[in-house]
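Write out this protein's structure.
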Amino acid sequence: MNCPHHCEIYKAVPRSYRDLPLRLAEFGTVYRYEQSGELHGLTRVRGFTQDDAHIFCAPEDVKEEVGKVIDLVLYIFKVLKFEDFVAQVSLRDPGNPDKYIGDDDNWNAAEKAIQEIANEKGLKTIVELGEAAFYGPKLDFMVRDAIGRKWQLGTVQIDYNLPERFELEYKGSDNELHRPVMIHRAPFGSMERFVAFLIEHCAGKFPLWLTPEQVKILPISDRFNSYAKEVLELLNNYDIRASIDERSEKIGRKIRDAELERVPYMIIVGEKEAESGEVSPRKQGEGDMGAMKIETFAEFIQEEIKKLLAN
């Protein structure tokens, strides 16, 4: 885990209440010694990268900071259309206190805060005893995949105990030393697991703004490759990711292959398009959209991306 490293960064210089909240983030590689029978493709691996971050804040700012993390996770789920999820409130196992560090007062404060925030945000929650981290309670976002399995994709954790262990301090407005609270957060969690989940969830049909290749340009024959390159250059000027299928194949084969590759849009270019300076786009799975100017098509793509991200 990267938590101790961020604690040491915090501790490297004296901190004031004016410095808080202090937010440190990284895409860090971490390791878990999973047993061989537990490994499962990209969804459960021994070495993975997570969008790890730690927020150091004053106790009175805990709820606001955790609320912002929840908003971030919900935004990610909204734009990717992850709708079937619950927020799992992971608390201590009251019958096994030796699993955890820290005193009861800190644990009670952290558990109370995380449940209150989940309720205030209107999250659909379940409570799981014994699933807390050894240093604090968690709010884990459990999402169902295309075949009904549940995966943890995002998490936020409230931690009063590691700041105690690492003797972290800040000088308050009263000129006295105080202990910060540490919030652990990973909106995506394991990037490998997240990508594996996304591929299954979309069946390979990524959202237009995310897909590596947004447009495939399909010349009817080699004679129109030069015009296809003009179209490609203009699309690149609009920051649209596109490529040309220059193979000496029939146009029907090119369209079929682009459909199988899940490319959202195809552009057919032939003699009529080269003479008129237009293109004939097709939408993946839907068919022809009619002839239009290249600029019109590029603006259409940009507008569709804006709508997807706004909704």
